[in-house]
Amino acid sequence: MIREAKTHEDLVGLAEVWTAITPREPMSAEQLERRRERQPERLYLAAEGDGRTVGAGLAAPSDSPGRTFLGVRVLPEFRRRGIGGRLFDTLVTHARAAELEWLSTMVSEADADSVAWAERRGFEEYERQVELVLRLRGDESFPPAPDAVSLVEVTPELHDQAYRLTREAWEDLPLLAPVEPPEFDVWLEEEMSGPIAFGATDDGELVGFAGLLERDAPGLLEHGLTATRRTHRRRGIATALKRTQVGWAAAHGYRELITFTQDRNEGMQAINLALGYEPQPAWISMRRRP
User: Fold this and answer.
1) 2-100 belongs to which CATH class?
2) What is the C-alpha radius of gyration for the chain, rounded to an integer number of angstroms?
3) CB-count burial class (<10 Å; 0-12, 13-18, 19+) for 204
4) pLDDT tens across 112-133, in order?
5) Is the distance from CB of 165 to CB of 135 less than 8 angstroms?
6) Do 234 and 208 contact (CB within 8 A), yes or no?
7) Residues 185, 237: contact at Cβ < 8 Å?
8) With contact defined as beta carbons under 8 Å apart, do 106 and 125 qualify?
């Protein structure tokens, strides 16, 4: 049976399915609830079998105008029973109620069956997110700051400046489809809710920042956006911020860092690779007309 997931218990089941399939991209019921509060047009679906949730469906407005994101997850032992197709059809019907140009989804390069499943439903690749992982030894150290720049913790007093840097960085992301930066409150929750964020200041002004985000997986942290003011790029600031994050994570008992970079963002990929991050299977962004 497929039904709309409305209660907290429903969302717990959805989150468990999502996390079981993509454990390095965990989801919680609380996250789903907060996001639905911000976007009431979201639709969450639960597929039930053997007395438990075995599949999850999500339709949500994207950060790109005119696009709705669709996500379908079915536990491996319940696949090839038509559950994913029924979830997908219900999500598409819901999405078509809005005016939009594209339906989008994201699939792991490592999951050939899911890539083929999406292609059979008319989705085509248009972009990739490169996933990179750094495994920490525990003795990594903090670097010195670049000349004329100080490295500091980003405290609430600096949030407005950090948000302005975020908007500037989003404008410069090498994306095929235009995206809108998050609103300030959403940015605070999604980018600044982790254990710490570091900034680079020049004469008291914030010219770069980078946050770390908590993941449900033990010992794992995710890099948030690394942003540098246009006037201060190519001075080693982004590298220094990332190295500072690495040192802090190692000193606080974390043993793995994960980051995602657009496949055309060659500059940030070069920084990550130079710091020892190892590429993983990419996440493929796919889209089709409604």
Assistant:
1) alpha beta
2) 20
3) exposed
4) 999 999 999 999 999 999 999 9
5) no
6) no
7) no
8) no
Q: Which CATH architecture has domain 133-279?
A: 3-Layer(aba) Sandwich (3.40)
Give the whole-angstrom CA distance, residue 119 versus residue 284: 12
Strands 52-61 and 278-279: unpaired
Q: 125 near 283, Cβ under 8 Å? A: no
Please tell me what DSSP assigns to residue 97: T
Task: Say whether pTM exceeds 0.85.
Answer: yes
Distance of CA 43 to the CA centre of its chain: 19
Measured in degrees and rounded to the nearest 5, phi and psi for residue 199 equal -130, 160
With CA atoms as reference, report the closest residue to 238 among 194, 204, 196, 207.
207
CA 85/CA 95 separation, integer angstroms: 15
Q: At what angle do helices 8-21 and 29-38 cross, to 10 degrees?
A: 110
The number of residues in the chain equals: 290
**Phi/psi of residue 52, each to 5°?**
-150, 170
The three-state secondary structure class of 274 is: helix
Q: How far apart are the first and last CA of the chain?
A: 25
CA angle in degrees (0–180, nearest 5) for 129-133-138: 155
Distance of alpha carbon 102 from alpha carbon 290, whole angstroms: 6
Q: Where are the domains of the chain?
A: 2-100, 133-279
Asked if 2-100 and 133-279 have one fold, the answer is yes
* β-bridge partners, 213: 222
Structure letter (DSSP) for residue 107: E
For 208-260, how does the pLDDT look when each residue is reduced to its tens digit (9 = 90+)?
A: 999 999 887 789 999 999 999 999 999 999 999 999 999 999 999 999 999 99
pLDDT tens for residues 92-116? 999 999 889 999 999 999 999 999 9
